[in-house]
Known about the structure:
- By secondary structure, the chain is α+β, with helices and mostly antiparallel strands.
- The mean pLDDT is about 95.
- It has three helices and six strands.
- The longest helix has 19 residues, at about 45-65.
- Strand 4 and strand 5 form a beta hairpin.
- The protein starts with about 25 loop residues before the first strand and ends in a 22-residue tail after the last helix.
Amino acid sequence: MSRVVTPYEGSGHRPWDASAAIPAPLCLHRTPVLPEWVDYNDHMSESCYLLVFGDSSDAFFRYFGIDEHYRHDGHSLFTAETHLSYLREAARGEPLRLTVHLLDLDAKRLHVFHEMRHGDSGALLATAEQLLLHVDTRAGRVTPLPPYLRERLTAIHTAHAALPRPRAVGHVMGIKTPSVRP
């Protein structure tokens, strides 16, 4: 069985320009809904939404400097938690445009929020809120980000601080009406 490969593998990362404006939010990933992502309901399968959000995360990582070389040196970002909200269906071939908003960070963690929109209409299709951990893969433990990545992420966070906090952030799942007890 082959492993999951993002569309950005092998592309490295772009050089960081500390003087460049940072878009808020960042739009780093676009893709059509591929035929292999469509399920028996003739829409994008739920697991494929997460796959596409993962590709958006990989584009984000490369934006601020995490690529194959960084991972080869024994560090990476791991997802600790993800909350997906499916709002509308996406059909085969439809264009998708993804954005990422850096909500918060500390020495070892990133809190990000992705939006998936229809590439033509702009309709919001899905969101993903994620908590990411910086990991020393050789030691198998969470470890602080190096100062140069922390500086870049702080710049992104500062640029994104002007964005409104998405309503879905921190959403708790549950049934709001009293449950029927047997």
